[in-house]
Amino acid sequence: MRLILASTSPYRRELLARLRLPFDVVRPEVDETPAPDESPATLALRLARAKAAAVAGAHPDAWVIGSDQVADLDGAPLGKSGGRDAAIAQLSAMSARAVVFRTAMSVQRGDVAFDAVDCTRVRFRKLALDEIERYVDAEQPFDCAGSFKSEGFGIALFDAIETQDPTALIGLPMIATARLLRAAGFALP
């Protein structure tokens, strides 16, 4: 069976490779603008489904994985910062607070879809502006929801991570991925 990852994220590609299944990578063309009053969980799942569907439509013979992550700060979605000033603002807003990261995924082929949403709670320690600036300048996490890389230097920003799947915070919850791929018929241990 053919498998496609509907993402050009190097983080998701590296995680999916852990399952030792051959897969292709295709960039999904999806507008990621939140709808008015859309909750972070709803946004993450809508985008994961839309990314999988966008690629699946062009590759009807393949199973397609779409994924998206949205930070939930008191019900308000935080996505990728895209630049230094926005990253500093995001991390400043999360300082000394708990933030829930909603990582959604969808595995689709034709009219069949299997979905999952992981919730990971991150407790940020109190961060001084100079710490935030040093971190942002060192790691430049502009392509990450919440403006940090937990698999890198960003781990120093936290007091705790509460999760059922440590890979979810990196961008693709591998426990759910394996479960959904088994449901789609892939042979995994």
From TrEMBL:
Gene3D superfamilies: 3.90.950.10
Record flagged with keyword Membrane: no
Subcellular location: Cytoplasm
Location, primary (coarse class): cytoplasm
Assigned keywords, A-Z: Cytoplasm, Hydrolase, Nucleotide metabolism
Cofactor(s) of this protein: a divalent metal cation
Site (Important for substrate specificity): residue numbering on this chain: 11, 69, 151
Reaction equations catalysed: N(7)-methyl-GTP + H2O = N(7)-methyl-GMP + diphosphate + H(+)
UniProt superkingdom: Bacteria
Record bears the keyword Cytoplasm: yes
Active site positions, chain numbering: 68 (proton acceptor)
This protein's name: 7-methyl-GTP pyrophosphatase
Taxonomic source organism: Noviluteimonas lactosilytica
